[in-house]
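Deliverable D5.2: sample structural annotation.
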Amino acid sequence: MRALISVYDKTGVVDLARALHAMGVTLLSTGNTQRLLVEAGLPAIAVSEVTGFPEILDGRVKTLHPAIHAGLLARRDRPAHLEQLAAHGLAPIDLLVVNLYPFQQTVAHPEVTLDEALEQIDIGGVALLRAAAKNFHDVLALVDPADYAPVLADLQAGAVPVAVRRRLAARAFAHTARYDAAIAAYLNDELLPSTLSQAWPLAQPLRYGENPHQHAALYGEFHSLFAQLHGRELSYNNILDTAAAAELIEEFPAASAPAVAIVKHTNPCGVGTGATLLEAWEHAFATDREAPFGGIIAVNQSLDAALAQAIAEIFTEIIIAPDFTPEALALLSRKKNLRLLRALQPVASLAGLQVRSVPGGVLAQEPDRTAVEAEEAKVVTQRAPTPEEWQALRFAWRVVKHVKSNAIVYAGPDRTLGIGAGQMSRVDSSRLAIWKAQQAGLSLQGSVVASDALFPFADGVEAALSAGATAIIQPGGSVRDAEVIAAADAAGAAMVFTGRRHFRH
């Protein structure tokens, strides 16, 4: 039996090679891997001795040779293949251990040059893996150090089952697919390319999906956004809510004012700012004191003991913060069912398309991360908003883009007052928001209203004004804009058009 070992990630490779050698396996290797094995006292034969050809072009060509690929691709159940190997003085290769140059890690550095990136595109390794994986009935392909020990155990027991061989082949092809997708994404300069190349590694198997009867797993780099400090692993629904809460709180930079967002089922229950996090919490929690039970809380500054004490009084699934003071961490860690997440980097830092699955394919779009300041707000009524109304309008506009459509948000300058989400008509969303405010005992007199999309009729505006709102922010663009503006003017209200819609389905 012969094994070819050529790895960039050398984790566990010496122990693997030593165990193979003890089983009588002939070791072939290349470059630095071969030197490492020899230094460990193992008789690793250089590939150049097998091919009769030296490594050339700074190592770009070393395994691309018939003596290697014929040994991997020859089918053992076809006598003609074995006869041809013998006729050319070649021998089979039965085990391949390869992992690839670190292209993804290289291009993750913001200052990497194109030449540096291109030099990290592995050619020979990919070709080797594909050859071995294609011939998995006869050749084992190992790409992940985690597979070394179980495969060794099977070999020592006598044979590696076909099902395991096939699984290893699938992992090899998945590895090269992800590698190629990363290269394509790096070289591509089109927002929406003709072929969308995406590949995500398994990050975490989940206990179940949205419901207990659904199998689920998390793929990709989501965990790079957070460090979990306490609590059980995140569930499928926890992850969706965490993403929603993190995206919402990022609308409120830490340098501006302390802010708290409470999210339930990916919709905001309440959002507030204040002189302190505790005051911001009081503003957010006052919006709805029932829905936050079992919700997600996100803050934009280090969470202190005062806020921790207030939060501890209700059942919360997850708390997200840039950091926790030692006192807050100690207090909250007493709750075994509470998950504490430290935000390591903004959600927006994971640049790329927003992708959602549909039967038979995916939808891809740019993320909706336009800053409020970047939108051109145009006053369309006879009266312009007062400074306090402008502050409230900007606050409400930040929140409404994170509410499921149809979305209506009543707000003051530093807090939400009523939120209507996901209704089939905009008027119903407004009615729901008004009802929620009434249930919370909050007055809407002097409030402002934000609508994620245009008001198609004047009735939605009239309902908002009747509830006590004095200023409205919306995209505009309805064929009945004149009627909508006239309704606001008749009530002496101010209205602002942004020209930009924020549907969230």
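Annotation notes: The first strand starts at residue 2 and ends at 6. The CA atoms of residues 314 and 454 lie 37 Å apart.
The annotation will be released with the project's public dataset once the embargo ends.
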